[in-house]
Amino acid sequence: MPCRSCGACCASLRITLPRCELDSLGGPVPAALTEPYTATTACMREHPDIPGRCVALEGEVGTAVRCAIYENRPEACREFAPLTILGHGDAACNDARRRRGLAPLPEL
């Protein structure tokens, strides 16, 4: 599966989520891995040593990656590039891949 080796989206895009998704408010996303963004939203923290990279992303982008909170990831992550499971990208997925020097996935 491309997402297990890629991770470009998690290293290129800042994820914003409604605060109701935080575990401190009954949702699944660990609040400790987020920071306030607006009065009603939060965003995933960046890795302290790698700006632009989600703190929950583990591994080497383009080689082998995994999300440390996969089962509890934000809805925005769940909905991003749904065709990658079939080996297909979309404009947003392929833009993130280009930013990380990776070839685009075929689009439908």
What does this structure look like?
There is one protein chain. The protein is an alpha+beta fold and 108 residues long. The protein has one domain (2-99). The protein is built from 4 helices and 7 strands, in the order H-H-E-E-E-E-E-E-E-H-H. It has helices at 2-5, 8-12, 75-79, 91-99; strands at residues 16-18, 34-36, 41-44, 46-47, 50-54, 57-60, 64-67. The two termini are 17 Å apart. The model has no long low-confidence stretch (mean pLDDT 93).
In short:
This protein has 108 residues and is of the alpha+beta class.
Please summarize the sheet with the most strands.
3 strands, antiparallel
Please tell me what the overall shape is.
globular
Reading side by side through the largest sheet, how are the strands ordered? Answer: 1-3-2
Share in helix = 10-25%
Question: Roughly how many Å apart are the termini?
Answer: 17 Å
- Which spans of ≥5 residues are poorly predicted at pLDDT below 50? none
What percentage of amino acids are in beta strands?
A: 15-25%
**Rg (CA only):** 14 Å
Structural class: alpha+beta
Can you write the helix and strand succession as a string?
A: HHEEEEEEEHH
Total of domains: 1
> What is the β-strand count?
7
The tally of helices reads: 4
Mean pLDDT over the full residue set: 93
Mind sketching the topology for me?
Layout: H1 2-5, H2 8-12, E1 16-18, E2 34-36, E3 41-44, E4 46-47, E5 50-54, E6 57-60, E7 64-67, H3 75-79, H4 91-99
Antiparallel strand pairs: 1-3, 2-3, 4-5, 6-7
